[in-house]
Amino acid sequence: LATGPRQNNGIFYEIRTYDVKPSKMKEFVELVNKYFHLRAAHSELVGFWTAELGAMNKAVHVWKYDNFAHRTAVRNALANDKDWQGKFISPALPLIEKQHNEVAYLVPWCQLGKPPKEGGVYEWVTFQMKPGGPALWGEAFQAAINAHINTGYTKLIGVFHTEYGLLNTVHVIWWNESPDHRAAGRHSAHEDARVVAAVRDSVRFLESQQNMLVIPLACSPLK
C-alpha cells in the first residue's frame, strides 16, 4: 500500500508506553526522575509524560534515533550498562504491568516543536486512520491540523505516523497553557467554520480517535 512522502533522512522516533501498577505509580515516577538521566546519556529523550485524563497509571516517553543501526547500538550499550540495569531496570520492572512500543516518523510537513514556556499541559491525540497511508488521507489530515493551528489557542509539538506497531496510526502532540485554556480554545474552534469544514473532510478517513491529557515529568526535556 502506498504510504506517500515522508522525510528524506533516516531519523525516526520510538514511542514507548508503560501501564504501571496502580499502587506503584508514585514509586515509578520517583524512580524515573531519579535515574532516567542514566538512560538519556545513551540517546536523545524527546519527552516523558504521565497520563492525567483519558487514561490512568500510564506513562509514555519518546526517543529520537538517527537510524535503526543507531537504535541497535544504543540498546546493546544499555544492556551492558550496569548502573542503568541495577539502579533503574531491576527495581522498575516489578512496578510495570505492560509495555508497548511503536516506531514512527514525523510527517514530512511537520517539524518537532517546543512549547513557548514551561508549566503547561500536553494533549496526546491518537488517530487510527483507514488503511492506505498518507497517500490516501494525508492532505485532508494536514488540513484539519492546520485549521486548529490557525485558531491560535494551541501549539503543535509533533505529528507522528507509525512504521512499526498498529499501522495507519497517527499521534499528534499539542501543548496548551492549562486544561481550562485548552477547553475554551476547543469550544471556540468548534464554532469556527474553517475548522468544522476541515474536520468534516478528514473524518471520512478516520476509524477511531483517543486522547489523553498528559503531564511532563521533571526529567522530561519537553516541559
TrEMBL record:
One of its GO terms (cellular component) is mitochondrion. InterPro entries: Dimeric_a/b-barrel (IPR011008), NIPSNAP (IPR012577), NipSnap_domain (IPR051557). Signal peptide: none annotated. Pfam families: NIPSNAP. Residues 13-111, 122-221 form the NIPSNAP domain. GO terms for biological process: mitophagy. Belongs to the NipSnap family. This is NPS3A protein. The gene is Nipsnap3a.
